[in-house]
Amino acid sequence: MTHSEFNLEDEETTLFQIWIMPDRAGGTPGWGARQFPQADRSGRFVTLASGIEGDDALPIRADARVAAATVNAGDTVSYDLPDGRHAYLVAAKGRIRVNGEEADPRDGIAIRDVGTIEVEAIDDAELVLVDSL
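Predicted structure:
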């Protein structure tokens, strides 16, 4: 596999690349784009990409879900994590407290065996969460 990214803008760009292993080898490569307005994910997780049946999101070929939320300082958002699944959470912006543990912006937090993930925003925060097997 070969992949590259280029910033063609005149200003610095900050981004996340999230790589999720597909459930099976092969298949046709795909790419998609869709609007996910920030206001829609204010105070709640919204699924952006998913291979889980019934999710209204960009499709991926994995039993996984990528979700995002924006949370105002002092507010809390939660995500139910079913048995046998694990999550990877990053605050793209803002300091947060995850199930009582503090994390700085851009820290990666691996989570499993908790039932519910509670995220309190210490600062205004933007969150990205990957839920997978």
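Summary: The chain has a mean pLDDT of 93.
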